[in-house]
Amino acid sequence: MLKPFLFCVALAGSASTVFAQTPPADSVVIRSIYNEALTNDKAHDWLRYLTQQIGPRLSGSEGAKKAVAWTKQLMEQQGFDRVFLQDIMVPHWVRGAKEEAYILADKQKTVVPIAALGGSVATPAKGVQAQVVEVKGLKEVEQLGQAGIKGKIVFFNRPMDPTKINTFEAYGGAVDQRGSGATFAAKFGAVGAIVRSMTNALDDFPHTGSLRYGPGVPLIPAAAISTNGAEKLSALLKANPALTFYFKQNCESLPDAPSHNVIGEIRGSEKPDEIIVVGGHLDSWDLGQGAHDDGTGCMQSIEVLRILKALGYKPKRTIRAVMYMNEENGLRGGVGYADYAKKNNEKHIAAIESDEGGFTPRGFGIVGTDAQKAKVLTWRNLLTPYGLHEIGVGGGGADIGPLAQLGTVLFGFKPDTQRYFDYHHTAADRFEAVNKRELSLGAASMAALTYLIDQYGL
Amino acid sequence: MLKPFLFCVALAGSASTVFAQTPPADSVVIRSIYNEALTNDKAHDWLRYLTQQIGPRLSGSEGAKKAVAWTKQLMEQQGFDRVFLQDIMVPHWVRGAKEEAYILADKQKTVVPIAALGGSVATPAKGVQAQVVEVKGLKEVEQLGQAGIKGKIVFFNRPMDPTKINTFEAYGGAVDQRGSGATFAAKFGAVGAIVRSMTNALDDFPHTGSLRYGPGVPLIPAAAISTNGAEKLSALLKANPALTFYFKQNCESLPDAPSHNVIGEIRGSEKPDEIIVVGGHLDSWDLGQGAHDDGTGCMQSIEVLRILKALGYKPKRTIRAVMYMNEENGLRGGVGYADYAKKNNEKHIAAIESDEGGFTPRGFGIVGTDAQKAKVLTWRNLLTPYGLHEIGVGGGGADIGPLAQLGTVLFGFKPDTQRYFDYHHTAADRFEAVNKRELSLGAASMAALTYLIDQYGL
């Protein structure tokens, strides 16, 4: 059905002709959005620069600073109507020298890959060595109590459930160990916590991520161990429950640092005071290049504005790309942006976040009223030709979450995430892990949704 | 809705308990199929062996021979009810020494990567050097006629259309150049044909594949040039239309060789004479390891039978895994298998092929009557929780195509193919390009469909 249109648009050549006459049908506009994305994609080249020339961008780091300056400049070069920085203060945790760890069993030393969890304290300079108690979850720590835990290293080894088709559900079902394991263990006198990496794959990469220390408990050092390392440790423990584990890490939390959300917008022509946000987070973990998490979401968001501009589309509402700072270890950017919007009485009708990787699109999660969801579902036939079948399943995104209090409808871009946790928070999250076509299709999907919201409101 | 079932099955531990009592609901069986695939997958390890230990498997090669023997042994080890070889004769084309090619313009020599097309003749020993005429398609050759073509190398440079969401549609829209370019060019006196590789990506891999010489025209040598090479050649031609292109290739067609389809089956308990085929092709191009094309389809097909066996499922109908030989340059396996079925009066009710890569499942194409398609669509609610939204779109697969004459309903497994043509027919089609979870999900999807067909017929 779409083919005749497609052909016309393709023949017309310059996409800017699409809006030259009477308003084209939505299907024609959406087709032209995908055509523009798939033939003139810029997101992939931008991502190459962000990941390979700037690299990791943990809050407070030099990389984060460079990324702020470069992204601002990039949006200025695109000729957006306004580009500006929003000041925020962010946590400033640094890893320091590379961690060391080994298992000592029957006088055999087995080196295993670990990475300090974000926010963790260092070990003493000589490291920590202790016996290990393996548990499958937080409750088990409470059951073992002081008698089972005191003086030991607690090894949290519950894997992500591989049978969940939605990998984020599997992540959600295991990540409490990383977030709260150290606190649970410390309550009962543990001297350290080692957490199985959050991935379905068996690999040699430790998958870092944040922990939260609880009030009133000692701050014990905590690290992620690679899944292969976890399997090794578990097997050796079965053979020799008295083995010891040694680890040394050198991380520390410095005073909060000044940083920024980076914001660019195209001003609306009819309802400029109604804002539609597309965004991702600019910060990343320090081990890789922050490609899928979340360089892709940032570059896709800028690409959404570029595509609409390239098509000569004049939005009714204001469309704003927001590069949030500090999603990974504080969410200060997301919270700060919602505060800014509130303080300025800005009306945000919708926010779309891409923070599940730059993979082939599958749909959008929606957080809104039933009526709002129903309205979005009336657009379904326009979106399914592009593989967007899963509309309304699941939530939004961490950075846009705080906007919910302003009545903003939240959309989480849902790509195919079967590979996501192969890269997430590791040294493997590099530019090469991103496929150009998959990335472009995601940007086009976000642009198509942005267009429909702009046209019809919510 | 499925969650309580899921939990029960998971807790029950051994999947073989699923069929111990009264017949479970279809949703429970399908959940148990995915659980088995995602926790005990064997396809990935098998694929590692096939690709890394055996490697490329072009018809008639040593690799193909080894793959036949190993696959037979593998199915025997799985304890299938019958495992056997079907004799077929196959084309035996060999590449010989690596090709050489360069552009000679303004005394500058620019080396470009090429690969002889399968079935092509060699160049003379000293190579071919001639001026180049660039065309965007076959018709253009006819328009240029002898005056424009004679004594030249025709350079077919129409890219795959990047705006097609379905990459196979884009492939279908460009591949006539590879299949028939040499014949069209030879008709008008060309001395060689160079074809832009079939991929949306810009890369340095020539993407090989078969050509067909037409009757009564000279056999001229033809090669694929990498897309980066094609861009370079096109740019240099614009600056200097009189440049020359040199290439040398050493391929030849040997006499047909004996080979085999490899077949394993689980016998049906109620209607053993009704056969359901799951299959892929065992042969592959010679440049890579034949991972996505089509090691994945073969290993998934054996995995389907393994999964059903592991669950203790006793099929009503006979379920047969067929590893077809010679899909790439002759289809002798597919044609021979249909002949075999016809000769033996075998009733094949359905055939499922996986030959679009081992990526995340999106659905199944169906070739059958409207009533048969409608019946399959009644199963939709059982399949969409696993991401199988696209049911009935598109066709089956090359190897199973000849079964259509027996009234067999054909199903093409449809994974997400956005990355497929990054690997297809190149040195990059290696084991590392396959993601374990994505592969498992595909095998589970094929097993789920097999189960439903077995239960309810077509």
TrEMBL record, chains A, B:
<dbReference type="GO" id="GO:0046872">
    <property type="term" value="F:metal ion binding"/>
</dbReference>
<comment type="subunit">
    <text>Homodimer. The monomeric form is inactive while the homodimer is active.</text>
</comment>
<keyword id="KW-0645">Protease</keyword>
<keyword id="KW-0121">Carboxypeptidase</keyword>
<dbReference type="GO" id="GO:0006508">
    <property type="term" value="P:proteolysis"/>
</dbReference>
<dbReference type="InterPro" id="IPR007484">
    <property type="entry name" value="Peptidase_M28"/>
</dbReference>
<dbReference type="GO" id="GO:0005764">
    <property type="term" value="C:lysosome"/>
</dbReference>
<feature type="signal peptide">
    <location>
        <begin position="1"/>
        <end position="20"/>
    </location>
</feature>
<dbReference type="Pfam" id="PF04389">
    <property type="entry name" value="Peptidase_M28"/>
</dbReference>
<dbReference type="GO" id="GO:0004180">
    <property type="term" value="F:carboxypeptidase activity"/>
</dbReference>
<keyword id="KW-0458">Lysosome</keyword>
<keyword id="KW-0378">Hydrolase</keyword>
<keyword id="KW-0964">Secreted</keyword>
<keyword id="KW-0732">Signal</keyword>
<keyword id="KW-0325">Glycoprotein</keyword>
<keyword id="KW-0865">Zymogen</keyword>
<keyword id="KW-0256">Endoplasmic reticulum</keyword>
<dbReference type="GO" id="GO:0005576">
    <property type="term" value="C:extracellular region"/>
</dbReference>
<dbReference type="InterPro" id="IPR039866">
    <property type="entry name" value="CPQ"/>
</dbReference>
<dbReference type="GO" id="GO:0070573">
    <property type="term" value="F:metallodipeptidase activity"/>
</dbReference>
<keyword id="KW-0862">Zinc</keyword>
<keyword id="KW-0479">Metal-binding</keyword>
<protein>
    <recommendedName>
        <fullName>Carboxypeptidase Q</fullName>
    </recommendedName>
</protein>
<keyword id="KW-0482">Metalloprotease</keyword>
<feature type="domain" description="Peptidase M28">
    <location>
        <begin position="261"/>
        <end position="440"/>
    </location>
</feature>
<keyword id="KW-0333">Golgi apparatus</keyword>
